[in-house]
Amino acid sequence: MNPPLGTLHLVPVPIANEQGGPQDPGSALQVLPAGTLAIARQCGYFLVENAKSARAFLKAIAHPQAISSLRIEQIGHEPDPAEIDRWLAPLLGSAAAAPSDAVLLSEAGCPGIADPGASLVARAHQCAIPVMPWVGPSAIVLALMAAGMNGQRFRFLGYLPQDRPHLRESLLAVSADARRGETQIFIETPYRNVRLYETILEVCDGALRLCLAIDLSGAGHFLATRSILQWRALPAEQRPALERRPAVFLLLG
Amino acid sequence: MNPPLGTLHLVPVPIANEQGGPQDPGSALQVLPAGTLAIARQCGYFLVENAKSARAFLKAIAHPQAISSLRIEQIGHEPDPAEIDRWLAPLLGSAAAAPSDAVLLSEAGCPGIADPGASLVARAHQCAIPVMPWVGPSAIVLALMAAGMNGQRFRFLGYLPQDRPHLRESLLAVSADARRGETQIFIETPYRNVRLYETILEVCDGALRLCLAIDLSGAGHFLATRSILQWRALPAEQRPALERRPAVFLLLG
């Protein structure tokens, strides 16, 4: 029988653009369940995409220890493979210290889904470290639920190519899969949202349905599913405000 | 200016196999956030996959009204398209009644994701009924977070074909996409899980990684990612208990 190891807990955090007070619909206390909050408050060791936003999150959920007394390791946007064993070492324990649990946090949403963390989880599996996922917000799931598209077959593509010829080519391939009945989901860096939206209207078939899901748990959330033809016909002043706001794009035939 | 309509709220419910007391890790009060619980408790009109499990859920979250006084419409596993406008009519209001909100509930997890509901949501968009998704458990998302696979590109395939020749053919195609770096996610009816697991070990390349995520927010949850070769080498008594338990299968190269 091996000695017990620490558990790597995967804890989602709010996805809203701006963080308001505890009664705000997008705040941590409104969008995280009791089980998830309890595990984040119990833990003293955190592996986080961004240390500053992680401290703000731990304050928002009223972690019972002084934030400065917690061990917070910043793994960054692209975790360095050479550091992973050092980050996971406390979960294995040592002659000097019993194994401790760790909580993995990304900047917004679920760790490892359109966010860093998967490489640490993969290494944890190799080391037989128990991995425990907790319930919380995912912009992709909220958008897919609300799009009214096919939730029996869907594909998340991450970011489409940036340069225009490859973006157009990629949108044509995505449209073909959407026409075959598989929901196509993708995202863009917020400051390039408008360019992506305009390219979709230009390139994609008028009969396809496009869902725009913008800043879903934020105060100014917007969600609509319309055909490409209907989006094209919208007067400029009725176009959704996409500029610099987190958005998910979904296409289906 | 159009008169305001009711909102169609999309509320996830717990995914655990058995429902325990309120302190049970998989119970509604542990896995649903305050915002989601509040909306479900405020509403008096429910569109549900299964009336019996919906009543048990409303009791578990301590809905303030007598359950018998709530309007609960069972939409079933495959909602009848001819009924959708009748179900949505209360959200539009009438000369006799102001528009009311509705809450859509599936039997487990998120409405419209590997579960019925999408056809009602699609019709709501056509009628300009506001649609609001709420945070809660999704077995697919919990499994993907915890698999340590690629969360930047993934595909959910629903159920693979049942008959053996088509299942083998489908697993070969799925393996090819998995080798190209896209996480492949699929599910099976619980009583056929063992057959699917055995066929995967038989058909798929030994170097592929398979994650089994079983009954994730239940008491006996199990999760492991190993190569097909490692799964094949497992002594029979160490094989995970898949029989009649909800499971998600994930493959990656």
Short description:
The structure is a homodimer. The first copy, chain A, contains nine helices and ten strands.
Characterise the protein shown here.
Two copies of one chain form a homodimer. With about 250 residues, chain A is α/β, with parallel strands linked by helices. Helices cover about 35% and strands about 20% of the residues of chain A. A five-stranded parallel sheet of chain A has the order 3-2-4-1-5, covered by helices on one side. Chain A is elongated and about 65 Å long. Chains A and B meet through helix 1, helix 5, strand 5, helix 6 and strand 6 of A and helix 1, helix 5, strand 5, helix 6 and strand 6 of B. Strand 6 of chain A pairs antiparallel with strand 6 (about 155-160) of chain B.
Key terms for this structure?
253 residues; 9 helices; five-stranded parallel beta sheet; 33% helix; homodimer; alpha/beta; five-stranded mixed beta sheet
Please write out the topology.
The structure is a homodimer of 253-residue chains.
Chain A: E1 8-10, H1 28-31, H2 34-42, E2 45-48, H3 51-60, E3 71-74, H4 84-92, E4 102-105, H5 118-126, E5 131-133, H6 139-147, E6 154-159, H7 164-179, E7 183-187, H8 193-203, E8 209-214, E9 222-227, H9 228-233, E10 247-252
